[in-house]
Amino acid sequence: xxxxxTHVAMITPFDKDGNIDEEKYRNLIDFxxxxxxDGVVAAGTTGExxxxxxxxxxxxxxIMIDQxxxxxxxxxxAGSNSTAEAQNLxxxxxxxxxxxxxxxxxxxxxxxxxxLYDHFKLLNDAHNIPIVAYxxxxxxxxxxxxxxxxxxAKLDNxxxxxxxxxxxx
Length: 169
Fold this sequence. Notes:
By secondary structure, the chain is of the alpha/beta class. It has a single domain, classed as Alpha-Beta Barrel (TIM Barrel). The protein is built from six helices and six strands. It has helices at 22-34, 54-68, 83-96, 113-126, 137-140, 146-153, and strands at residues 7-9, 39-42, 73-77, 100-104, 131-135, 158-163. Helix 2 links the parallel strand 2 (39-42) and strand 3 (73-77). Helix 3 runs parallel beside helix 4 (113-126) and helix 4 runs parallel beside helix 6. The chain is globular and about 45 Å long.
């Protein structure tokens, strides 16, 4: 798996009835690959992960993996507020053949730093897929502290941190 270069967080296109528009999604993937991206991300924040059903999330992951067909790196959005649900989503991404799983910090409940670490440790220990930890405090209400990031980065399957905190101090 190559995490170097540009990886695009894709939108999830919908038709006029609110269903996933598979043709437009496949066309988007091909367009991105034809324009030399190094990887694509399905079902992240940009892909409506917080508003689509888990079935729809699985559908966009399946379409992504099928359409990419090994041409670039695939990263599947697999985060949830619930660690148990995140486990299910990470397992789905792993079984579907994604190259990595993008896992957001648990949101809404504002867990302590130890709880954030435990969330990633449980996912790390239960799966073999590479994990990209996603810190986006503006969406989650919680920020991974530097010390927690250091500890999370030591986990075997955590291969990257997607940092979306504009305050890098």
